[in-house]
Write a structure and sequence with these properties.
alpha/beta; three-stranded mixed β-sheet; globular
């Protein structure tokens, strides 16, 4: 497929999706969010792709939602609801998504990064949920994911004041996994994606689901889900191959079966 607002590249089992509205600081328009959801869903169904990198480039990730589109929206505006529906579809991508963020990562952009599985930030990255300055609140998971990640009091400060934090502070708070110089950002994210892509796909899929359950269920329910997933993987060809290769001291060949 061809896209107007994003770029999609492939490097073996890794796909790199780049937000591509540089003149608007990658503001998340309805068209961009729709294209992003469709592209990620297509990659999720592509057996040759095992991990995805999502980036806005080295200068900016996304400065937020396209406010010009939302300024006159009513509560039940079709495009407003459609935007959030496409957001929900992005949240359901089953393959690992690594966000490579640089520069402004604000509002809807911060929420988009947080719905990814790993965030790698450049030293120039700045995170924030400044929606309160516009008379609204985060609407795509900002109050929930941010709180679960950095804790009630820090999240409350960020959401109520609209203040930004830098990459170093985001790393200290656990919002990002790693901070690197901007010139190494994309390669670092691709390196992690390639490392994950070399792992058995079923185990990666089940592991992602199990970790996400920790945010959504009680400890008991999460442990039960983990145990069931653990048992199911013993029926996979990749489990047999992985353990056989370990015993034979050779590199395993995983097939995702």
């Amino acid at each position: 497929m061809s896209y107007e607002f994003i770029l999609v590249e492939r490097e073996g089992p890794v796909a790199i999706v780049t937000l591509n509205r540089p003149q608007q600081l990658n503001a998340l328009s309805y068209g961009l969010i729709k294209e992003l959801a469709l592209a990620l869903e297509a990659l999720d169904q592509d057996a040759d792709i095992r991990a995805i990198v999502l980036t806005g480039g080295e200068k900016v990730f996304a400065a937020g939602t396209d406010i010009k589109e939302m300024a006159d929206a009513a509560p039940f505006d079709d495009r407003l609801q459609g935007r959030l529906a496409f957001r929900d579809r992005i949240n359901r991508i089953s393959k690992p998504v690594i966000a490579a963020v640089s520069g402004l990562t604000l509002g809807g952009g911060c929420e988009l990064a947080m719905c990814c599985d790993i965030i790698i930030a450049s030293e120039t990255a700045r995170f924030g949920q400044p929606e309160v300055n516009l008379g609204i609140i985060p609407g795509s998971g900002g109050t929930q994911r941010l709180t679960r990640t950095v804790g009630k009091y820090r999240a409350m400060e960020m959401v109520l004041t609209g203040d930004f934090i830098n990459a170093a502070e985001a790393h200290t708070l656990g919002l990002v996994a790693k901070v690197v110089p901007v010139e190494f950002l994309i390669e670092e994210a691709k390196g992690i994606a390639k490392k994950i892509a070399a792992k058995p796909p079923l185990a990666v899929k089940f592991a992602k689901e199990a970790v996400l359950k920790a945010f959504e269920t009680s400890l008991g329910e999460g442990l039960e889900f983990e145990r069931k997933s653990f048992y199911l993987l013993f029926a996979s060809e990749d489990k047999r191959e992985g353990m056989k290769a370990f015993i034979e001291k050779r590199k395993p060949e995983f097939k995702g079966k």
